[in-house]
């Protein structure tokens, strides 16, 4: 069941999202050739805790069975999502890296991701990042009362495929609130078989969703590395990831994870 948030609850999610945005800002300033993903993770966790929040991802899903060991996901080049920060992962000029950050503030979640080039990158890699960001913008434009969830999903797929790229189909966005993952599911494509699509919810004020296009240069098939977390493109081609937590309001979309 999709839970509509009150103004008081949205205020807490707004603060959780602001902390995510502050982390993004700080990490973008630090990302450069020679830095390790472990250093980025350490900086992110420090900022999160300094602002009275806790990292959503650390220990997720808290089952004791291969819980996520870091505060952010740091995914490089062909890695799509859930890359584990490490002192051995040193960024190189020409890499692209996606950073996914989640926070919990007074029991409420914020979640957002960005992809950025490390130093000078190829024009093809820059196009991939730009299209992913623009697809997210197109989806957010649909987050208005009276629109439906399929409008959001279709906006991502249409824009990405018009640019000659593909959306990852095995991972998706989600509702968000007290929990990181709540209904509804928000895939980045519309399955040809309508029976296999998620419920086409009417968007209403108080709904909060994390929209996260994951876009690749090649085929959308994926595989998971032996660490049990890191997801990569099956063909080894580049992938980018962009995400915001968005609230549907009477006045249209409000991006909760943007300063």
Structural write-up:
This protein has 259 residues and is an alpha+beta fold. The protein has a single domain (7-255), classed as Creatinase/methionine aminopeptidase superfamily (Creatine Amidinohydrolase). 27% of the residues lie in helices and 25% in strands. It contains four helices and 15 strands. The chain has helices at 7-30, 37-50, 123-141, 149-162; strands spanning 54-55, 72-76, 79-81, 96-105, 108-117, 166-167, 173-175, 182-186, 208-211, 214-216, 222-224, 231-233, 239-241, 244-249, 252-255. The strands form four sheets. The chain has a five-stranded antiparallel sheet. The longest helix has 24 residues, at 7-30. The chain is globular, with a radius of gyration of 17 Å. The mean pLDDT is 97.
The CATH fourth-level homologous superfamily: Creatinase/methionine aminopeptidase superfamily
In what order do the strands lie side by side in the largest sheet? 8-7-9-14-15
**Rg of Cα set:** 17 Å
Straight-line distance between termini: 30 Å
Query: Which residues sit in consecutive blocks of at least 5 with pLDDT less than 50?
Result: none
CATH class: Alpha Beta
CATH architecture: Alpha-Beta Complex
Estimate what percentage of residues fall within beta strands: 25-35%
Counting helices, strands and paired strands, the structural category is alpha+beta
Quaternary state of the chains: single chain
Shape: globular
How many domains?
1
Largest sheet: 5 strands, antiparallel
Order of helices and strands: HHEEEEEHHEEEEEEEEEE
Number of helices: 4
Percent range for helical residues?
25-40%
- The CATH topology comes to Creatine Amidinohydrolase
Quick check: average pLDDT?
97
Question: How many E-type strands?
Answer: 15
């Amino acid at each position: 069941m999709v839970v509509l948030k009150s103004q008081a609850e949205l205020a807490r999610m707004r603060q959780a999202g602001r902390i995510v945005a502050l982390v993004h800002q700080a990490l973008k300033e630090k990302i450069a050739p020679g830095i390790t993903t472990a250093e980025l993770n350490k900086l992110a966790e420090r900022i999160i805790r300094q602002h009275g929040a806790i990292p959503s991802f650390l220990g997720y899903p808290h089952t004791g069975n291969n819980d996520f060991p870091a505060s952010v996901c740091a995914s490089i080049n062909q890695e799509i999502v859930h890359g584990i920060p490490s002192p051995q992962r040193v960024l190189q000029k020409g890499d692209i890296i996606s950073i996914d950050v989640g926070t919990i503030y007074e029991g409420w979640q914020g979640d957002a991701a960005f992809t950025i080039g490390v130093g000078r990158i190829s024009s093809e890699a820059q196009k991939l990042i730009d299209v992913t960001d623009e697809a997210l913008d197109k989806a957010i434009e649909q987050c208005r009362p009276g629109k439906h969830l399929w409008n959001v999903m279709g906006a991502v797929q249409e824009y990405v495929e018009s640019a000659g790229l593909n959306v990852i189909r095995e991972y998706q966005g989600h509702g968000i609130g007290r929990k990181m993952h709540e209904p509804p599911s928000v895939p980045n494509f519309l399955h040809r078989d309508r029976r296999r699509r998620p419920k086409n919810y009417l968007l209403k004020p108080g709904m909060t969703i994390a929209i996260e296009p994951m876009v690749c240069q090649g085929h959308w098939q994926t595989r998971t590395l032996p660490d049990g977390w890191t997801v990569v493109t099956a063909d080894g081609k580049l992938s980018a990831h962009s995400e915001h937590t968005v609230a549907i309001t009477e006045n249209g979309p409000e991006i909760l994870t943007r300063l």
